[in-house]
Amino acid sequence: MSEERKDKIIQDGVSRRSVLGIGSAALAAAAFGELSAHAQTREGTRKAEGDHSSSNPGQENKPLLAENPHSNTPPPTDQGDVGPIWYSYDLTHKRIQEGGWTHQVTQRELPSSTEIAGVNMRLTAGSFRELHWHTADEWSIMLYGNARVTVLNPDGTILIDDVSKGDLWYFPAGFPHSIQGLGSLAEDRAAVGGQKVQSPIQYTFRMEAMAPTKRSTGGEIRIVDSHNFPVAKNIAAALDIIKPGGLREFHWHPNAPEWQFYMAGKGRMTVFMPVGSARTMDFNANDVGFVPFNAGHYVENTGDTDLVFLEMFKASEVLDFSLNQWIRRLPPEMVTSHLKLDNNAIHTIPAENLEILPR
């Protein structure tokens, strides 16, 4: 191909794509892989961090950059495009009414998340979430306070139960339900017919009170899915508590994308996608994270307090593959051939899926 022809292709490509807001260097790397001078490389990124190449002499939103240092100056391993993996409830419109407020992160705010949307809601004491139902299943966790929930079954039986911090409820699609401030539970149950109309199905679960599914010096994880909460047939979840410096080990999920809600602390997540794409973002309380289907990822506690977040899946159970465990289950010569690790190094890798690793 002539240099004149190459130049014309580059010019045409940039003019078409610049309308979409794609940076010229990123565009060149994506569209013209053979023109390596335009691509971000690990060596080039490291050199840039050592001089003034990564600085911005123009205007900056410094508070926002301070919240997202690894997006503003990504690690050398970040490259390519994995799609949006971060948003925050604190950036969404808050609908405020007498009795409380609500705001939401849906596909509008996080286009990658096509299966799960989130709503953050507050009800003041004595207030009601009006009687309603949904076209999709509802899975909720109480972040603080106390509430009373009701849900009606098709046979006319009804669950009336109280929930507190760390408790869950699950309402199947189409099932009418309510959320309200507390009165007397016994009086409410008696008023609707007592034991004879009590639901045989339990739609609430004490997640925070359950024993950890796995625990290590790096933290603990509680998994709630259809195995221990049978009514939750379409939404599974895990509650992670990671100690400072701890790591939700590198893994991926073979059955669903992952939707995350960060409840406390500060963390950093890197998501890997084929071929060779990676993105790192920082997360704080009230942020939402997203991991595409089957994408490898890890989450690290970068703060000095516990990092607490939810993993949620549109699935009946939580499934994951641990990179560490996969390596240890392979014949050593295969690992050495692929990763250039000797036998001693291989045996320092945990052989089990520990979920959370210590510092």
Q: What's the helix and strand layout?
A:
Elements: H1 3-17, H2 24-31, H3 42-50, H4 62-67, H5 69-72, E1 86-88, E2 95-97, E3 100-105, E4 118-123, E5 128-132, E6 138-141, E7 146-152, E8 158-164, E9 167-171, E10 177-180, H6 185-191, E11 204-206, E12 214-216, E13 219-224, E14 236-242, E15 247-252, E16 258-264, E17 266-273, E18 277-284, E19 287-291, E20 296-301, E21 307-313, E22 321-322, H7 323-329, H8 332-339, H9 343-346, E23 356-357
Antiparallel strand pairs: 1-19, 2-3, 3-4, 5-10, 6-9, 7-8, 7-10, 9-11, 12-13, 13-14, 14-21, 15-20, 15-22, 15-23, 16-19, 16-21, 17-18, 17-20
Helix pairs in contact: 1-2
Quick summary:
The chain has 359 residues and is an alpha+beta fold.
Tell me about this structure.
By secondary structure, the chain is α+β, with helices and mostly antiparallel strands. It has 3 domains: 3-53 and 60-75, no CATH class; 89-206, Jelly Rolls (Sandwich); 214-357, Jelly Rolls, CATH 2.60.120.10. The chain is 19% helix and 33% strand. The chain contains 9 helices and 23 strands. It has helices spanning 3-17, 24-31, 42-50, 62-67, 69-72, 185-191, 323-329, 332-339, 343-346, and strands at residues 86-88, 95-97, 100-105, 118-123, 128-132, 138-141, 146-152, 158-164, 167-171, 177-180, 204-206, 214-216, 219-224, 236-242, 247-252, 258-264, 266-273, 277-284, 287-291, 296-301, 307-313, 321-322, 356-357. The strands form 5 sheets. Strands 1-19-16-21-14-13-12 form a 7-stranded antiparallel sheet, with no helix packed on it. Strands 15, 17, 18, 20, 22 and 23 form a 6-stranded antiparallel sheet that branches. A hairpin with a 2-residue loop joins strand 12 (214-216) and strand 13. The longest helix is centred in the first third of the chain and has 15 residues, at 3-17. The protein starts with a helix and ends with a strand.
